[in-house]
Protein backbone atom coordinates (compact mmCIF):
# COMPACT_ATOMS: atom_id res chain seq x y z
CA UNK A 1 0.00 0.00 0.00
CA UNK A 2 1.95 3.01 -1.35
CA UNK A 3 4.37 1.66 -3.98
CA UNK A 4 7.36 3.98 -3.64
CA UNK A 5 11.08 3.58 -2.93
CA UNK A 6 10.95 1.21 0.04
CA UNK A 7 8.16 -0.85 -1.57
CA UNK A 8 10.57 -1.58 -4.43
CA UNK A 9 13.38 -2.61 -2.07
CA UNK A 10 11.01 -4.74 0.03
CA UNK A 11 9.60 -6.51 -3.03
CA UNK A 12 13.05 -7.17 -4.49
CA UNK A 13 14.35 -8.59 -1.21
CA UNK A 14 11.29 -10.79 -0.66
CA UNK A 15 11.23 -12.13 -4.19
CA UNK A 16 14.96 -12.91 -4.10
CA UNK A 17 15.22 -14.51 -0.67
CA UNK A 18 11.82 -15.95 0.33
CA UNK A 19 8.93 -17.93 -1.09
CA UNK A 20 6.46 -15.25 0.00
CA UNK A 21 4.17 -13.89 -2.68
CA UNK A 22 3.32 -10.25 -3.26
CA UNK A 23 -0.27 -10.93 -4.24
CA UNK A 24 -1.43 -7.40 -5.05
CA UNK A 25 -0.36 -3.77 -5.08
CA UNK A 26 -2.45 -0.71 -4.19
CA UNK A 27 -1.63 2.82 -5.26
CA UNK A 28 -3.55 6.09 -5.27
CA UNK A 29 -3.20 5.84 -9.04
CA UNK A 30 -4.14 2.79 -11.11
CA UNK A 31 -1.43 3.50 -13.67
CA UNK A 32 1.26 3.55 -10.96
CA UNK A 33 0.03 0.36 -9.40
CA UNK A 34 -0.16 -1.32 -12.82
CA UNK A 35 3.40 -0.33 -13.67
CA UNK A 36 4.64 -1.57 -10.27
CA UNK A 37 2.74 -4.84 -10.77
CA UNK A 38 4.24 -5.25 -14.23
CA UNK A 39 7.79 -4.51 -13.01
CA UNK A 40 7.59 -7.11 -10.24
CA UNK A 41 5.26 -9.67 -11.79
CA UNK A 42 2.45 -9.05 -9.28
CA UNK A 43 -0.91 -10.56 -10.29
CA UNK A 44 -3.32 -7.82 -9.07
CA UNK A 45 -3.13 -4.01 -9.21
CA UNK A 46 -5.61 -1.64 -7.56
CA UNK A 47 -6.08 2.08 -8.09
CA UNK A 48 -6.97 2.89 -4.48
CA UNK A 49 -5.92 1.81 -1.01
CA UNK A 50 -9.56 1.01 -0.21
CA UNK A 51 -9.70 -1.55 -3.01
CA UNK A 52 -6.48 -3.16 -1.86
CA UNK A 53 -7.81 -3.38 1.71
CA UNK A 54 -10.90 -5.17 0.40
CA UNK A 55 -8.96 -7.47 -1.94
CA UNK A 56 -9.48 -11.23 -1.63
CA UNK A 57 -6.59 -13.65 -1.08
CA UNK A 58 -4.48 -11.09 0.77
CA UNK A 59 -3.17 -12.19 4.18
CA UNK A 60 -1.29 -9.09 5.20
CA UNK A 61 -0.89 -5.52 4.00
CA UNK A 62 2.47 -3.78 4.02
CA UNK A 63 1.93 -0.04 4.56
CA UNK A 64 4.70 1.98 2.93
CA UNK A 65 3.20 5.41 2.38
CA UNK A 66 4.99 8.48 3.79
CA UNK A 67 4.72 8.77 7.59
CA UNK A 68 1.67 11.04 7.36
CA UNK A 69 -0.36 8.21 5.80
CA UNK A 70 0.65 5.31 8.05
CA UNK A 71 -2.22 5.60 10.51
CA UNK A 72 -4.99 6.01 7.93
CA UNK A 73 -3.61 3.18 5.80
CA UNK A 74 -3.24 0.87 8.80
CA UNK A 75 -6.81 1.61 9.89
CA UNK A 76 -8.07 0.76 6.39
CA UNK A 77 -6.30 -2.59 6.54
CA UNK A 78 -7.36 -3.39 10.11
CA UNK A 79 -10.99 -2.43 9.45
CA UNK A 80 -10.95 -4.83 6.48
CA UNK A 81 -9.75 -7.61 8.80
CA UNK A 82 -6.26 -7.76 7.32
CA UNK A 83 -3.02 -8.23 9.23
CA UNK A 84 -0.73 -5.24 8.80
CA UNK A 85 3.00 -4.49 8.71
CA UNK A 86 3.58 -0.74 8.89
CA UNK A 87 6.76 1.01 7.80
CA UNK A 88 8.59 2.89 10.51
CA UNK A 89 7.49 4.90 12.36
CA UNK A 90 4.30 3.10 13.41
CA UNK A 91 2.43 6.43 13.37
CA UNK A 92 3.18 10.12 13.17
CA UNK A 93 3.17 10.33 16.95
CA UNK A 94 2.58 8.11 19.98
CA UNK A 95 -1.17 8.84 19.95
CA UNK A 96 -1.53 7.42 16.44
CA UNK A 97 0.62 4.43 17.36
CA UNK A 98 -1.49 3.72 20.45
CA UNK A 99 -4.64 3.93 18.33
CA UNK A 100 -3.23 1.39 15.84
CA UNK A 101 -2.33 -0.92 18.73
CA UNK A 102 -5.83 -0.66 20.24
CA UNK A 103 -7.61 -1.16 16.92
CA UNK A 104 -5.54 -4.17 15.87
CA UNK A 105 -6.02 -5.81 19.25
CA UNK A 106 -9.79 -5.19 19.14
CA UNK A 107 -9.99 -6.56 15.58
CA UNK A 108 -7.85 -9.60 16.43
CA UNK A 109 -5.38 -8.95 13.63
CA UNK A 110 -1.58 -8.93 13.63
CA UNK A 111 0.12 -5.52 13.60
CA UNK A 112 3.78 -4.52 13.72
CA UNK A 113 6.20 -1.74 12.86
CA UNK A 114 8.67 -2.62 10.10
CA UNK A 115 11.77 -1.81 12.18
CA UNK A 116 13.81 -4.19 10.02
CA UNK A 117 17.07 -3.71 11.95
CA UNK A 118 15.76 -5.80 14.84
CA UNK A 119 15.26 -8.84 12.58
CA UNK A 120 18.77 -8.95 11.16
CA UNK A 121 20.81 -11.98 12.27
CA UNK A 122 23.26 -9.73 14.14
CA UNK A 123 20.48 -8.35 16.31
CA UNK A 124 19.53 -11.82 17.44
CA UNK A 125 23.14 -12.19 18.65
CA UNK A 126 23.24 -8.69 20.16
CA UNK A 127 20.04 -9.42 22.06
CA UNK A 128 21.55 -12.62 23.48
CA UNK A 129 24.70 -10.74 24.55
CA UNK A 130 22.60 -8.08 26.28
CA UNK A 131 20.37 -10.69 27.95
CA UNK A 132 23.41 -12.66 29.15
CA UNK A 133 24.76 -9.55 30.90
CA UNK A 134 28.09 -9.78 29.07
CA UNK A 135 28.43 -5.98 29.04
CA UNK A 136 27.81 -5.64 32.79
CA UNK A 137 25.79 -2.59 33.87
CA UNK A 138 24.97 -0.53 30.82
CA UNK A 139 25.83 3.12 31.41
CA UNK A 140 25.81 4.74 27.99
CA UNK A 141 24.35 4.40 24.49
CA UNK A 142 25.52 6.69 21.68
CA UNK A 143 23.87 6.38 18.26
CA UNK A 144 23.61 8.63 15.22
CA UNK A 145 22.28 8.66 11.67
CA UNK A 146 22.94 11.28 8.99
CA UNK A 147 22.24 10.94 5.29
CA UNK A 148 22.46 13.00 2.11
CA UNK A 149 19.23 13.43 0.13
CA UNK A 150 18.39 14.86 -3.26
CA UNK A 151 16.67 18.26 -2.74
CA UNK A 152 13.46 16.88 -4.27
CA UNK A 153 13.15 14.14 -1.60
CA UNK A 154 10.00 14.11 0.55
CA UNK A 155 12.23 14.51 3.64
CA UNK A 156 12.34 18.26 2.86
CA UNK A 157 8.51 18.52 2.74
CA UNK A 158 6.95 19.83 5.98
CA UNK A 159 3.53 18.58 4.80
CA UNK A 160 4.90 15.01 4.80
CA UNK A 161 6.38 15.37 8.30
CA UNK A 162 9.86 15.77 6.83
CA UNK A 163 13.12 16.22 8.72
CA UNK A 164 15.48 13.58 10.04
CA UNK A 165 13.49 12.53 13.12
CA UNK A 166 11.08 9.96 11.67
CA UNK A 167 13.10 8.74 8.69
CA UNK A 168 16.53 8.47 10.37
CA UNK A 169 16.19 9.28 14.08
CA UNK A 170 13.76 6.41 14.62
CA UNK A 171 16.66 3.94 14.26
CA UNK A 172 18.93 5.32 17.02
CA UNK A 173 15.89 6.07 19.18
CA UNK A 174 14.59 2.52 18.74
CA UNK A 175 18.01 1.16 19.74
CA UNK A 176 18.38 3.47 22.74
CA UNK A 177 14.89 2.72 24.09
CA UNK A 178 15.33 -1.00 23.41
CA UNK A 179 18.49 -1.07 25.54
CA UNK A 180 17.63 1.48 28.24
CA UNK A 181 13.82 1.89 28.21
CA UNK A 182 12.08 5.26 28.49
CA UNK A 183 14.23 8.23 29.52
CA UNK A 184 13.39 10.15 32.68
CA UNK A 185 14.90 13.39 31.37
CA UNK A 186 15.68 14.60 27.86
CA UNK A 187 17.26 17.77 26.48
CA UNK A 188 17.13 18.40 22.74
CA UNK A 189 18.68 20.95 20.40
CA UNK A 190 17.69 21.50 16.80
CA UNK A 191 18.82 23.29 13.66
CA UNK A 192 16.19 24.36 11.11
CA UNK A 193 16.42 23.76 7.36
CA UNK A 194 15.51 26.41 4.79
CA UNK A 195 12.76 24.14 3.45
CA UNK A 196 10.88 24.54 6.74
CA UNK A 197 11.68 21.13 8.22
CA UNK A 198 14.12 20.41 11.01
CA UNK A 199 17.61 19.82 9.54
CA UNK A 200 19.45 18.41 12.53
CA UNK A 201 18.63 17.29 16.03
CA UNK A 202 20.70 16.21 18.98
CA UNK A 203 19.34 14.99 22.29
CA UNK A 204 20.84 13.78 25.54
CA UNK A 205 18.79 11.51 27.78
CA UNK A 206 19.03 10.25 31.33
CA UNK A 207 17.39 7.07 32.60
CA UNK A 208 16.18 6.01 36.05
CA UNK A 209 19.34 4.08 36.89
CA UNK A 210 21.58 7.01 35.90
CA UNK A 211 22.47 5.67 32.44
CA UNK A 212 22.69 8.23 29.66
CA UNK A 213 22.15 8.21 25.90
CA UNK A 214 23.05 10.63 23.13
CA UNK A 215 21.39 10.75 19.71
CA UNK A 216 22.11 12.84 16.63
CA UNK A 217 20.22 12.73 13.32
CA UNK A 218 20.41 15.05 10.34
CA UNK A 219 19.91 15.35 6.62
CA UNK A 220 23.13 17.25 5.86
CA UNK A 221 25.31 14.36 4.68
CA UNK A 222 26.27 10.74 5.25
CA UNK A 223 27.72 9.74 8.60
CA UNK A 224 29.13 6.38 9.74
CA UNK A 225 25.70 5.69 11.34
CA UNK A 226 27.45 4.02 14.22
CA UNK A 227 26.07 2.83 17.53
CA UNK A 228 27.95 2.10 20.74
CA UNK A 229 26.60 0.45 23.89
CA UNK A 230 28.90 0.88 26.89
CA UNK A 231 28.77 -1.35 29.95
CA UNK A 232 30.84 -1.77 33.10
CA UNK A 233 32.39 -5.03 31.74
CA UNK A 234 32.59 -4.43 27.98
CA UNK A 235 31.65 -2.12 25.12
CA UNK A 236 29.55 -3.25 22.17
CA UNK A 237 30.46 -1.41 18.96
CA UNK A 238 28.09 -1.87 16.02
CA UNK A 239 29.86 -0.90 12.85
CA UNK A 240 28.00 1.55 10.65
CA UNK A 241 25.50 1.58 9.25
CA UNK A 242 24.35 -0.10 12.46
CA UNK A 243 20.78 -0.45 11.21
CA UNK A 244 21.80 -2.62 8.26
CA UNK A 245 23.44 -6.06 7.92
CA UNK A 246 27.08 -6.03 9.07
CA UNK A 247 29.60 -6.81 11.77
CA UNK A 248 29.86 -5.81 15.42
CA UNK A 249 32.40 -6.29 18.23
CA UNK A 250 32.37 -6.74 21.98
CA UNK A 251 35.52 -5.05 23.31
CA UNK A 252 36.87 -5.75 26.79
CA UNK A 253 39.11 -3.36 28.77
CA UNK A 254 42.05 -5.84 28.62
CA UNK A 255 42.09 -5.63 24.82
CA UNK A 256 40.20 -8.86 24.07
CA UNK A 257 37.67 -8.61 21.26
CA UNK A 258 34.79 -10.86 20.23
CA UNK A 259 33.75 -10.21 16.66
CA UNK A 260 30.48 -11.14 14.93
CA UNK A 261 30.80 -11.28 11.17
CA UNK A 262 27.92 -11.20 8.74
CA UNK A 263 28.00 -9.95 5.15
CA UNK A 264 27.43 -6.21 5.20
CA UNK A 265 24.72 -5.00 2.88
CA UNK A 266 21.64 -2.89 2.43
CA UNK A 267 17.91 -3.33 2.07
CA UNK A 268 18.13 -6.08 -0.54
CA UNK A 269 20.23 -8.20 1.81
CA UNK A 270 18.21 -7.38 4.92
CA UNK A 271 14.49 -6.72 4.51
CA UNK A 272 13.57 -10.37 3.94
CA UNK A 273 14.52 -11.28 7.53
CA UNK A 274 11.78 -8.99 8.78
CA UNK A 275 9.27 -10.41 6.29
CA UNK A 276 10.15 -13.95 7.37
CA UNK A 277 9.72 -13.06 11.06
CA UNK A 278 6.31 -11.59 10.27
CA UNK A 279 5.27 -14.67 8.30
CA UNK A 280 6.36 -16.97 11.13
CA UNK A 281 4.44 -14.89 13.69
CA UNK A 282 1.26 -14.78 11.61
CA UNK A 283 1.48 -18.51 10.87
CA UNK A 284 1.82 -19.17 14.60
CA UNK A 285 -1.31 -17.11 15.31
CA UNK A 286 0.61 -14.33 17.08
CA UNK A 287 -0.74 -10.79 17.01
CA UNK A 288 2.62 -9.03 17.50
CA UNK A 289 6.33 -9.53 16.95
CA UNK A 290 8.37 -10.33 20.04
CA UNK A 291 11.41 -8.57 18.47
CA UNK A 292 9.48 -5.31 18.09
CA UNK A 293 6.31 -5.13 20.16
CA UNK A 294 3.77 -2.39 19.59
CA UNK A 295 4.56 -1.12 23.11
CA UNK A 296 8.21 -0.73 22.05
CA UNK A 297 7.19 1.17 18.91
CA UNK A 298 4.95 3.45 21.01
CA UNK A 299 7.80 4.05 23.48
CA UNK A 300 10.12 5.16 20.68
CA UNK A 301 7.48 7.60 19.41
CA UNK A 302 6.97 9.01 22.92
CA UNK A 303 10.65 10.01 22.89
CA UNK A 304 10.33 11.41 19.34
CA UNK A 305 7.28 13.41 20.48
CA UNK A 306 9.25 14.92 23.37
CA UNK A 307 12.14 15.86 21.05
CA UNK A 308 9.67 17.55 18.71
CA UNK A 309 7.98 19.36 21.60
CA UNK A 310 11.30 20.78 22.75
CA UNK A 311 12.32 21.77 19.20
CA UNK A 312 8.91 23.23 18.37
CA UNK A 313 8.50 20.91 15.37
CA UNK A 314 4.79 20.60 14.56
CA UNK A 315 3.53 18.04 12.05
CA UNK A 316 0.54 18.71 9.78
CA UNK A 317 -2.78 17.78 11.40
CA UNK A 318 -1.53 14.74 13.31
CA UNK A 319 -5.07 14.05 14.53
CA UNK A 320 -6.58 13.90 11.05
CA UNK A 321 -4.18 11.90 8.91
CA UNK A 322 -5.03 11.51 5.24
CA UNK A 323 -3.43 10.43 1.99
CA UNK A 324 -3.99 13.91 0.53
CA UNK A 325 -0.94 15.37 -1.12
CA UNK A 326 1.12 15.49 -4.24
CA UNK A 327 0.29 12.82 -6.79
N1 LIG B 1 12.79 0.34 6.29
C1 LIG B 1 13.56 1.22 5.66
O1 LIG B 1 14.77 1.05 5.53
C2 LIG B 1 12.93 2.42 5.04
C3 LIG B 1 13.62 3.13 4.04
C4 LIG B 1 12.97 4.19 3.44
C5 LIG B 1 11.71 4.57 3.86
N2 LIG B 1 11.10 3.89 4.85
C6 LIG B 1 9.76 4.28 5.32
O2 LIG B 1 8.82 3.97 4.30
C7 LIG B 1 7.87 5.01 4.15
C8 LIG B 1 7.84 5.42 2.68
O3 LIG B 1 9.10 5.92 2.32
P1 LIG B 1 9.59 5.95 0.78
O4 LIG B 1 10.96 6.50 0.83
O5 LIG B 1 9.33 4.66 0.12
O6 LIG B 1 8.60 7.07 0.19
P2 LIG B 1 8.19 7.32 -1.32
O7 LIG B 1 9.24 6.81 -2.25
O8 LIG B 1 7.79 8.75 -1.42
O9 LIG B 1 6.91 6.39 -1.53
C9 LIG B 1 5.77 6.55 -0.76
C10 LIG B 1 4.54 6.16 -1.58
O10 LIG B 1 3.39 6.43 -0.79
C11 LIG B 1 2.32 6.86 -1.61
N3 LIG B 1 1.73 8.08 -1.02
C12 LIG B 1 0.60 8.12 -0.27
N4 LIG B 1 0.33 9.36 0.14
C13 LIG B 1 1.30 10.15 -0.36
C14 LIG B 1 1.55 11.55 -0.30
N5 LIG B 1 0.74 12.38 0.36
N6 LIG B 1 2.64 12.03 -0.92
C15 LIG B 1 3.49 11.20 -1.57
N7 LIG B 1 3.29 9.86 -1.68
C16 LIG B 1 2.20 9.35 -1.07
C17 LIG B 1 2.87 7.06 -3.01
O11 LIG B 1 2.42 5.96 -3.77
P3 LIG B 1 1.01 6.03 -4.56
O12 LIG B 1 0.61 7.49 -4.67
O13 LIG B 1 1.32 5.40 -5.87
O14 LIG B 1 0.04 5.26 -3.75
C18 LIG B 1 4.38 6.96 -2.85
O15 LIG B 1 4.99 6.31 -3.94
C19 LIG B 1 8.28 6.12 5.11
O16 LIG B 1 7.41 6.15 6.21
C20 LIG B 1 9.68 5.77 5.57
O17 LIG B 1 9.92 6.05 6.95
C21 LIG B 1 11.68 2.82 5.43
Q: Return the structural class.
A: alpha/beta
CATH class of the largest domain: Alpha Beta
Corresponding CATH superfamily of the largest domain:
Dihydrodipicolinate Reductase, domain 2
Q: Based on CA inertia axes, which overall geometry fits?
A: globular
What Rg is obtained from the alpha carbons, in whole angstroms? 19 Å
**SSE pattern, N- to C-terminal:** HEHEHEHEHEHEHEEEEEEEHH
Largest sheet: 8 strands, mixed
**Beta-strand level of the residues, as a percent range?**
15-25%
User: Order of strands across the biggest sheet?
Assistant: 7-8-9-6-10-11-12-13
Query: Within the CATH hierarchy, at the fold level, what is the topology of the largest domain?
Result: Dihydrodipicolinate Reductase, domain 2
* Secondary structure tally: strands: 13
Bound molecules: NADP nicotinamide-adenine-dinucleotide phosphate
Number of domains: 2
Into which percent range does the helicity of residues fall?
25-40%
Q: Summed up, what is this model?
A:
The chain contains nine helices and 13 strands. By secondary structure, it is of the alpha/beta class. The protein folds into two domains: 5-115, Rossmann fold, CATH 3.40.50; 118-265 and 293-311, 2-Layer Sandwich (Dihydrodipicolinate Reductase, domain 2).
Write a structural description:
- The chain is an alpha/beta fold and 327 residues long.
- It has 2 domains: 5-115, Rossmann fold (3-Layer(aba) Sandwich); 118-265 and 293-311, Dihydrodipicolinate Reductase, domain 2 (2-Layer Sandwich), CATH 3.30.360.10.
- The chain contains 9 helices and 13 strands.
- The strands form 3 sheets. The protein has an 8-stranded mixed beta sheet, covered by helices on one side. A 3-stranded parallel beta sheet has the order 3-4-5, with helices on both faces. A two-stranded parallel ribbon has the order 1-2.
- Helix 4 (70-79) links the parallel strand 3 and strand 4 (83-87).
- The longest helix has 18 residues, at 294-311.
- The protein starts with a helix and ends in a 16-residue tail after the last helix.
- Bound molecules: NADP nicotinamide-adenine-dinucleotide phosphate.
Amino acid sequence: MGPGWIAERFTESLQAHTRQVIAAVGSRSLSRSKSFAEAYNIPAAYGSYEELAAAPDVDIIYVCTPHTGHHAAAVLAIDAGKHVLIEKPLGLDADQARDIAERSEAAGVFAAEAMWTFFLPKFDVIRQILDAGTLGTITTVVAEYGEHFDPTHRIFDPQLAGGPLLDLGTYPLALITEVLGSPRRLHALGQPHESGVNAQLSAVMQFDDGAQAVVNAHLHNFTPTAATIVGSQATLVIEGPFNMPGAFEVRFPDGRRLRHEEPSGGHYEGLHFEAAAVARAVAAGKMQLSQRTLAASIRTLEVADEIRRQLGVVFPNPKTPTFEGKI
